[in-house]
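Lecture notes, unit on binding sites. The following record was shown on slide 14. It pairs a sequence with 2-oxoglutaric acid.
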Amino acid sequence: MTAIDWDSVAGELDAYGCAVIPGLLSAQDCVAASALYERPALFRSRVVMQRHGFGRGEYQYFAYPLPAPLAALRGALYGPLAAIANRWHALLRIETRFPQRHEDYLARCHAAGQARPTPLILRYREGDYNCLHQDLYGELVFPLQVAVLMSAPGLDFEGGEFVLTEQRPRMQSRAEVVPLGQGDAVVFAVNQRPVQGTRGVYRVAMRHGVSRLRRGTRHTMGIIFHDAT
Ligand SMILES: O=C(O)CCC(=O)C(=O)O
Ligand SMILES: [Fe+2]
């Protein structure tokens, strides 16, 4: 994993509700990680999106124990993100604070009955898309998550842009398209983020999804920090 400019990540998250980490994974890591999708024994469940009205395409949630590189990545990203999450909660006047270590946060999730792993790989083919959604899996919510693009845009696929919308109170929604290259990660708000207004901080609801794939195959790795009921 390359060194991450966390000041820049925090600044982009504060301003836009999302931030890019360029080159989080190498092309080689991406190809290896995408290949995991074909190993069903690594996963606890598979979801065909059109069956649930979630869009078109499919994904699989990893089982515990996670593959070691993924477990390490999830643990390493958590700490700096917890600092941002705690600052956001203070701004939003939400009482919950997050421990510094991911294992302590997971212990909290597991004690609350959220014990199933949430990291996943998504696979889109031509015509597939992911409807705008929020990855909430129970009462406990870690407010930031990460998605890593593992395929090469323009080469492996076309279309299939990562999109975010934000719903501001009593205002029209704003959309954001996040351009990603292979191995780039996007960090984004799971459900809401603080925005500085003229009369204090207000909450903006965020959703994310993926626009229709025009061609090829696109794999993403999703890293969610709370576990699921
Ligand atoms: O495929 C994507 O870029 C988005 C995946 C997603 O919804 C997630 O990681 O939670
Ligand atoms: Fe998602």
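Take-home: The chain has a mean pLDDT of 97.
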